[in-house]
Design goal:
Order of helices and strands of chain A: HHHHHHHH
Helix content of chain B: over 70%
Shape of chain A: elongated
Largest interface: A-B, 35 and 26 residues
Structural class of chain B: mainly alpha
Number of helices of chain B: 1
Structural class of chain A: mainly alpha
Largest sheet of chain B: none
Distance between the termini of chain A: 54 Å
Strand content of chain A: under 5%
Oligomer: heterodimer
């Protein structure tokens, strides 16, 4: 396994630039006629939720590809994406709560969308925990891949929960049969740029997270290759010659 | 808290946590590289 001499820095630069552009647009866009300035929270909440779906979909693709090919490369993709997906799901939940308090008057309500997202967050936390139950890469990849495929069933359920059930959470803002719900071009641009910027952030994090997985595997291989004395060899025979 | 206060709170959480997550990856990469270097 080859380890690069230097860690790549360009993903951090790209990530920083994307976030700077998204932040600037979200601050200069106008306030909403109903929500006021609180609408700006949507420019980070919606991209975070979008990335949660995207990351778990990539985990699904990686898991399915692993089960079909048994190539560990796909397992690395699935694992990296799952961790990033858990981060973005947690972020979407936190930002939703921060928006809900001044808008709905409560931090949390057991609405269908919120509850299902909460469950999805814990299912993928379970996925990450499952990966830590064994050091055997084949067993770990196989077990995780099954959960990675099954867990993806939640993605459409979470997304369409606001359509299928009567919920307090508003319907989708961008992906709707009758077009985006936002009419103001600057607000729509801020939201789309936010989604694109966060997608670039996801790609940058994936590059670095996969680099980390390679390094972890390399470290484990090096540690295992070092000969350590077993208990019997470590015990030295008493040297009694000098005393007698 | 004013609307802008909530917005600042949300952006602090979003950008702050992203920075922390990125930093955790950097630290883990550095630690693994150091461990590999120590062994080799």
């Amino acid at each position: 396994m080859k380890v690069r001499a230097r860690s790549r820095r360009w993903p951090w630069v790209v990530m920083g630039l994307s976030l700077a552009v998204a932040f600037t647009l979200s601050m200069v866009s106008p306030a909403d006629s109903v929500q006021g300035d609180l609408v700006r929270i949507m420019y980070v909440h919606v991209p975070a939720a979008w990335l949660a779906y995207t990351a778990f979909f990539v985990t699904f693709v990686g898991s399915l590809a692993y089960l079909l090919t048994k190539n560990l490369r796909w397992d690395r993709v699935a694992a990296a994406s799952a961790e990033i997906g858990v981060y973005f799901t947690g972020l979407a939940l936190a930002l939703g709560m921060i928006w809900a308090k001044p808008t709905w008057g409560v931090w949390w309500t057991w609405d269908a969308r919120l509850t299902l997202t909460f469950i999805m967050f814990f299912v993928y936390l379970g996925y990450l925990a499952l990966r830590r139950t064994t050091d055997d890469p084949i067993a770990r990849a196989s077990r995780a891949a099954v959960l990675g495929v099954l867990g993806a069933i939640q993605i459409p359920i979470v997304h369409f929960s606001v359509v299928w059930w009567r919920t307090l959470h508003q319907p989708p803002s961008l992906i709707r049969p009758d077009g985006p719900a936002i009419q103001d071009p600057l607000m729509l641009t801020a939201l789309i740029v936010g989604v694109v910027a966060f997608t670039i952030v996801y790609a940058a994090l994936m590059v670095k997270r996969i680099e980390l997985i390679h390094l972890e595997e390399r470290r484990l291989a090096v540690e295992r290759s070092i000969e350590r004395p077993v208990a019997g060899e470590a015990v030295t025979v008493p040297q009694l010659g000098g005393a007698l | 808290m004013s609307d802008w206060g909530w917005v600042a709170f949300a952006y602090g959480v979003a950008y702050g946590s992203l920075g922390l997550y990125a930093a955790s990856i950097v630290v883990r990469i550095r630690n693994n590289r150091r461990s590999i270097g120590d062994y080799e």
